[in-house]
Amino acid sequence: QKEVEQDPGPLSVPEGAIVSLNCTYSNSAFQYFMWYRQYSRKGPELLMYTYSSGNKEDGRFTAQVDKSSKYISLFIRDSQPSDSATYLCAMMRGTSYGKLTFGQGTILTVHP
Amino acid sequence: EAGVTQSPTHLIKTRGQQATLRCSPISGHTSVYWYQQALGLGLQFLLWYDEGEERNRGNFPPRFSGRQFPNYSSELNVNALELEDSALYLCATGVREGGNEKLFFGSGTQLSVL
Predict the structure, then answer these.
(1) B20-73 pLDDT tens trace
(2) d(CA A108, CA A64)
(3) Residue A104: closest CA among chain B residues belongs to which residue?
């Protein structure tokens, strides 16, 4: 069993829709949670970074962490065609510094 | 401010050869991380350098090695290339926040082994 599970999709939604992306994990040692966006032939771009349960909002993006259920989510409101990309969840232990464990990534397409 | 820069963008080698990939960190960042993104395997941690020293490595054989220079730039060397080494190699540098590091990635080097 993988430490981090992420539905690879693909996910296709109309412009303006609310998108929900999810990851589950098995290792309770994970304390820091991130969401990255990766466009084709580019490196991952950090979208959200959290280290506590609850919600964190940044513009159209909301990250949600539920440590008791070992479940994290990313919500995208008013989705745009420019949001079309692969979304990766990532996690790390408290003392892992930059050693991240990634999910497989979800491919998202937002069509006009 | 310049981001993480990697070179070359693409690299084509044949099996058995050696590949050298380069990374320049964001100004002020002293840690460099290397990740491999292979088809079907996702992003996997390879190596971590900080202050010129190797601090940690992932589950990769010793033919994957590297170094960090005094200016904090880094090289990743892959010896005795195998077909399955074909992947996007990503470099990331970090800034400490909340007791851990927030990573920023470069655009990667696409290595193809023929």
Answers:
(1) 999 999 998 889 999 999 988 889 999 999 889 999 999 999 999 999 999 999
(2) 19
(3) B42
